Structures are given as structure tokens and as C-alpha cells.
Amino acid sequence: MRGRQHRAVFLDRDGVLNQAVIKDGKPYPPSSLAELELTPDARGPLETLKAAGFLLIGITNQPDVARGTMSREVVEAINARILAALPLQEILVCYHDDGDHCDCRKPAPGLLLRAAAQNDVDLSRSYMVGDRWRDVDAGRRAGCRTIFVDRGYLGEPLDTSPDWRVHSLREAVEWIVEQSAV
């Protein structure tokens, strides 16, 4: 059996690729295209990763679809706009809520494992970048190195144990490039 060849960087959508909508100190996804605002420092660093040979894959939980407060069409329109603006291969979505007990809702690693299988990715040479404890746990459980982008959200557990902690996507990319050169 042939070994897995590709390295990937898995990126959380809301809070990493685009700005989270902050309400009472807590992050939420944009609820419309009008609320979508890409992270200002996203394009350049992602191009750096792509040039270094990484596959770039967005990973996102969108439980508001299961809860009936957002339509799948809105999520898909937001993802299409992000894909048109940033050099990502794809954005994989979990539409379930916690009560559904699926294997794809972060912190479960299902979306990362599926992306790895579909794209011939070596997870031990890959990274998960996220702004919530769920992202870090999903990456760790999938076998990736993890980077926590600390946005200072209220209620975010302080005991999250990523491999690296940063304050921006640019800092995360700098660390990934440095680590991959070793």
C-alpha cells in the first residue's frame, strides 16, 4: 500500500478564515452574506502555505442548520464566497448539533479524517488551525499538530493544550512554515 503523500492545513472557518460575529463576547458565524467579513490577514498567509505545498481545507461546524435558525443555502453561499476569495481546496461542513452524536462535529475528528482519506493526506505531517477548543481537540484526535488562534472569546476554556498558541492567522502560518522546514 502506498504511503500518504500530501501535507494539509485544516482551517476553521468562523474566526480564522472569516471574522466571527461577536455578541456578548462570544463568537457566532455570520448569518448572511452581508455579515461575512474575511479575516484581513488571510489571503497572503494562505498563499504562502499553498506555495509551500500544503493542501488548504476549511473545516466548519454549522449547527444552526440543524437548529433551524439558518438555511443550508446561506451556509453554502458563504462558503462559495470564501472559496472564491481565498486559495482553499474546499470547505467541509458538519450541519449537526451536539445532540445528533455524529462523528463529524468538532471536537470529533470525522471531517478531518474524511478529508485526509479523500485527498491522500498524511495527518501526522498536517496542522489544524482554529480559534475554539473544539478545533484543537479535533486536530489532536485526528493526529495533526494544532494551533490555537486566541481571539480572547469569553467562556473559551483556558486549559486548551495546542501545540502552539498565536493571535493571528499570519502568526500561525509563520510557525507552520518554520516547523515544516525542520
Outline the structure in words:
With 182 residues, this protein is an alpha/beta fold. The protein has one domain (7-181): HAD superfamily/HAD-like (Rossmann fold, 3-Layer(aba) Sandwich), CATH 3.40.50. Helix content is 33%, strand content 20%. It has helices at residues 43-51, 64-67, 72-85, 110-119, 133-142, 169-181; strands at 7-12, 21-23, 26-28, 54-61, 90-94, 127-130, 145-149, 164-166. The strands form 2 sheets. Strands 5-4-1-6-7-8 form a 6-stranded parallel beta sheet, with helices on both faces. The longest helix is centred in the middle third of the chain and has 14 residues, at 72-85.
Total of domains:
1
- The appropriate CATH architecture is 3-Layer(aba) Sandwich
Q: Which CATH first-tier class would you pick?
A: Alpha Beta
Secondary structure tally, helices: 6
CATH superfamily: HAD superfamily/HAD-like
State the helical fraction: 25-40%
User: Oligomeric form of this entry?
Assistant: single chain
What is the rounded distance between the termini? 27 Å
Query: What form results from the Cα inertia axes?
Result: globular
Briefly note the CATH topology name: Rossmann fold
**What percentage of the residues does DSSP assign to strands (E)?**
15-25%
The largest sheet, given as strand count, sense and whether it forms a barrel, is: 6 strands, parallel
Strand order across the biggest sheet?
Answer: 5-4-1-6-7-8
Question: What are the salient characteristics of this protein?
Answer:
single chain; Rossmann fold; 8 strands; alpha/beta; 6 helices
